Amino acid sequence: MKKFSKEFMLGAATAAHQVEGNNIHSDYWVQEQIPHSSFDEPSLDAVDHYNRYEEDIRLLAGAGLNTYRFSIEWARIQPEPDAWEREEVEHYRKVIRCCKENGVTPIVTMHHFTSPKWLITQGGWENPEVVTKFQTYCKRLVEEIGDELEYVCTINEANMRLQLAALIKDMMKRMMGGNVGSQAAQSDVQVGINMMPENIKLGMIEAAQAFGIEDPTKIHTFVSQCTPKGDILVMRAHEAARDAMKKACPHLKIGLTLSLHDMQPLEGGEAHAKKEWEEEFLHYLPFIKDDDFLGVQCYSRKLFDSNGVVQPAESAPRTQMGYEDYPLGIANVVRKVAEEFKGALIVTENGIATDNDARRCEFIREAIEGIQACIDDGIPLKGYMYWTLLDNFEWQKGYSMTFGLIAVDRTTQTRYPKDSLQVLGSFAPK
């Protein structure tokens, strides 16, 4: 088995809301608590990573991994527009220091899907003021803890909003044609969502009331469909935050992450595949050309014929999320991205939702083999983060999706490392 070099960042990733628990000031918490929620279940205590991060980081390091990507929860730092919770800032400083004490490089994400409730009440991610609000938050935070960091992701999957807008448009077309096809369609977006929940209208009304918004169609969370203007606002927020953090801490390496698919055309599908790659990746190049790195995230592939997207064959293996189980996708995407983006690359997410850990072990081996071939071919790939460290709250899908390298009994919050944790760690240099 070939091992990575000592400089290669090999690790796992989490997101604050999915693992910490009791993120009571966030927009997701609001949406989980309403009577007709689109969430299968609320996050509640999650897997209590907020209190158990030391144990989790030690497990990661003990397996030989040297990097941990995690997010800082904006809603904890600023539960109200004019608040600044120094105790919460110090909490995240302790997480960062815990990483370093265990020989682990922290990669911090400033925004991973969740936003403070107040931000949504003020117009959310369609309000141009979000650019300044996000910039101000990021700048102040790195002024306080930036000396502890090296790598920062501004926004996780900055293209997710446009992906959702396209998905919802496609869903409407299917409905008008009498073919909803919700499972097939929603598996095209790499996040746990429920496209056609029961009582959706009641849920929207309740959410609007909870956010203090009169029109339910004006709820603009990060993980909701957006206008073309809203898509650009995300990128402007990224640029503004990046530049402000660089000014405050010039040593930081800053980028964002994108949700990407391995676009594979069948005969006649070349134009469709090219168009989707333009919308999913090339569209964003002008906004990331000055970044220090790009976080690449991929879970599966998309097939295209002359009519557009083709669903995998019935016999094709699928993950719990409905994606095709296709571990080669990440290496293919890295190669494709490297043709246009000439900076450093980090795989910030790649993994599989399955209750079969033996399959997870094989998935990791196959994905890593592809990643190592990319490096051998001279692609400037600096790291690989498996998603995810812990079985956790997969957004609207709740706790039923198991991506983790570590299982958690949520009645006791006891951790049970899986064989896959050791398999990933086995690629680290000893």
UniProtKB/TrEMBL annotation:
Keywords: Glycosidase, Hydrolase. GO terms for biological process: carbohydrate catabolic process. Gene3D superfamilies: Glycosidases. One of its GO terms (molecular function) is beta-glucosidase activity. InterPro entries: GH, Glyco_hydro_1. GO terms for cellular component: cytosol. It holds the Pfam family Glyco_hydro_1. Belongs to the glycosyl hydrolase 1 family. This is Glycoside hydrolase family 1 protein.
